[in-house]
Amino acid sequence: MSTPEGGRPAHHWCGTMPVHHQMIATRPDYAIARAAIENTTFARRNARAPRRREVVTIPVVVHVVYQQEAHNVSDEQIASQITVLNQDFRAANPDVSQVPAPFRPAVADTLIEFALAGTDPAGQPTSGIVRRRTGQAQFGDDDAVKFSSRGGSDAWPADRYLNLWVCNLVPWLGYAQFPGGPAETDGVVVAYHAFGNTGTATAPFNLGRTATHEIGHWLNLRHIWGDDGDACSGDDFVADTPNAAGPNFGAPTFPSVTCGNGPNGDMFMNFMDYTDDRAMFMFTNGQSERMDAALSQVRASFVAKKVLDGMWAGVAESVMRT
Amino acid sequence: MNATAAGLPGDWVHAREEDTGGAKVYRPWGHPLPPSRWRHRIELRPDGSYVDHRLGADDRSPRARGHWTVEPGPRIRLRPDDQGEPARTLEVVAAEPGRLVLKDLP
Ligand SMILES: [Zn+2]
After folding, report:
1. Distance of CA A32 from the midpoint of ligand 1 (Å)
2. What ipTM, to 2 d.p.?
3. Which of helix, strand or coil describes residue B51?
4. Pick the CATH number of B3-105 from 2.40.128, 2.60.40, 3.40.50, 1.10.357
5. Which of A122, A182, A231, B17 makes the best surface tag, with the fewest CB within 10 Å?
6. Region entry Disordered: which residue ranges (chain B) (predicted)?
């Protein structure tokens, strides 16, 4: 949730930011970049900057890093993940019909699509899939999978591709990097058993929603509970996701009330909660606006110039472009 | 550390499926649990240090380190090495081999 539009001066952002402790502590340039991105995001909202009407398609490179052949996910499984992304980000997923009535007006078609890259960084035709056999039995959340020198696969240029690594990730299902971080680690990582909706995808994380969630982060979305543990003080900087306590797990029954957010309770069916794949099926308009803000600045390299100009039309020069 | 600390040191992971009455059930790291997007893990080391595997905004698990002591109750007092972070107190509801039940105190 968020305070009403304009109710919070943008410069308070640093004081309310909870984590990325590690990167912020070790990389002050990252902290500065993050603050600038949030300032521009708030300023666009306050200025009622134009919303994008054209579809943006993000080229994706999938790096499959495997020691065991069983983790070498098939082309078909990769295609299934791309299909899921194109449904989820366009509100074209069949289960969007399960959104409870009070939340239906908030459902967003984000006008973002994904396609396996057809051209590699050298300009040559590609399948958009890189397969690397590794000596590493497993990977953690330390970015090793993103470097050939550490048994992984090097990122393609982050201003032209969304890098998506699939590997034997332990102990959880995925992790992301917010916009503004180093290009060589930019992208998302997903466990082979939580990727796509066929092959090695395993219930209850077998509908491709882990990648949907992680790419939400890559486009600057925060968790709907506000990343404050189980408290009610955190914020996802989005107005139409109700204030919620901590993450929801499994498949809750509507309504699930926390933080005095009755009668409708937590929006646990939002992609940015922690529910099972079959229990999450929507982004909101506020989240879509936030992703648009990312695409208008720090992710602008994915947007055609004409479209980009439209997103800034009529916005005062004082709204800084990051 | 003192005599009441018996059973407390260990590498513990939250088995939320077993939670009851506002208390959190922890099992030893490695205990078979269903896959999850995240579980809280805390290493209470015998030397009095701890590693708290927290939940990061980007789904990583940033590690917070500090020192732990046992207070009457018994309670566990966690004092982060980061001076900017507040200390926390956990009530020990039960401490059995292979099972630790904790409750957050305000
Ligand atoms: Zn997340």
Report:
1. 22
2. 0.93
3. strand
4. 2.40.128
5. A122
6. 54-84
